[in-house]
């Protein structure tokens, strides 16, 4: 078996090589959006390999591999359907315009950063697998958190997709279902998902145990302050104007909560 930290170094090296191939593919087709699909897919593949190669209680390793792989591969499939056959995502189109002739090099560096992020988000799963304490109550609690999180995210995605499919809602703001209580319920449940690994195998007796904290911490920072809410809301305001600004004033940005009094049914 392989030590967790050594395995993560190997995982980074393999991911770095794999993202060279992803970069070449995206460069050939002139669309960088597929990097998001690759990022999620490589996490799913990585957690399966970790379960095979690492030490730890067998039952815990199997369950973490199942939960992590299902989450990652579901996300990869969702992202693939969103980008396949579509124009390049606005973030990457802007990046391509900004760097001009240097765009291929800029994307190469960006893709290599994604290899680091793959390892960063594998760390909580590896930490949970490597915990050698008794399974006990931790595993069912972690599975329960995972089920609530994945179910909530899937429901939020479905509610938004159903809303967008109705031509009568063109240009309108979705305030149905979970979207009435949070402007980004899908992001909230995505963040909640990472607490499953924290519950299953967090231990602060070893250095790798602290890595379990990285899931909710780093994902929360990314969703709330970096690539999630800021960019999504900027585009929403551009496309929906005052209707979305009103939605911002009335509805919690992240944590589900009752809308302000004037908006309650």
Number of domains: 1
Query: Which value, in Å, is the CA radius of gyration?
Result: 20 Å
Give the termini separation.
58 Å
- The succession of helices and strands, N to C, reads HHHHHHHHHHH
Number of strands: 0
Tally of alpha and pi helices: 11
Mean pLDDT: 90
Low-confidence stretches: none
3D structure, described in words:
- The structure is a single chain.
- By secondary structure, this protein is mainly α.
- It has one domain (4-263).
- Helix content is 71%, strand content 0%.
- The longest helix is centred in the middle third of the chain and has 28 residues, at 103-130.
- The protein is globular, with a radius of gyration of 20 Å.
Which keywords apply here?
265 residues, mainly alpha, globular
What is the strand and helix layout of this fold?
Elements: H1 4-29, H2 34-53, H3 58-83, H4 90-99, H5 103-130, H6 138-165, H7 185-193, H8 195-201, H9 214-226, H10 229-240, H11 242-250
Concise account of the structure shown:
By secondary structure, the protein is mainly α.
